[in-house]
Amino acid sequence: VAIPVSGIDCPELKYNVGTCRLTALVIIILIAVGCFIFVVIIVTICCFCCCWCNKRRQRVQMVEETQYQQEKDDIRQRSNERRAERKAKHDEIRRKYDLRSES
């Protein structure tokens, strides 16, 4: 299918861009290659974003895990301190009333 422009007849399946330089096949190939490159770029960007988000999520989880472990250790330490204070207080009461520890 030829589209004549300004009275120039081009061979079949040639489009006029000034002169008969681009065939329909070349235009289709250029569009296909352009779409392929666009899709590759989009997929690459998506993969990069997913990997970056995953790494960031892992870093955040590690920080949260560290904070959780630190809080857990602090709670355990305070619990042990309170337990020691209670034991000292109970021992003092036992000495005061001359009671012996059964355990």
Order of strands in the sheet with most strands: 1-2
How far apart the termini lie comes to 104 Å
* Uncertain parts: 1-5
Tally of helical runs: 1
Describe, in plain words, how this protein is organized in 3D.
This protein is mainly alpha-helical. Helix content is 71%, strand content 9%. The protein contains one helix and two strands; from the N terminus they run E-E-H. It has a two-stranded antiparallel sheet with strand order 1-2. Strand 1 (14-17) and strand 2 (19-23) form a beta hairpin. The model is unreliable at 1-5 (pLDDT under 50).
Question: In terms of topology, how is this protein built?
Answer:
Layout: E1 14-17, E2 19-23, H1 24-96
Antiparallel strand pairs: 1-2
What is shown here, in short?
By secondary structure, the protein is mainly alpha-helical.
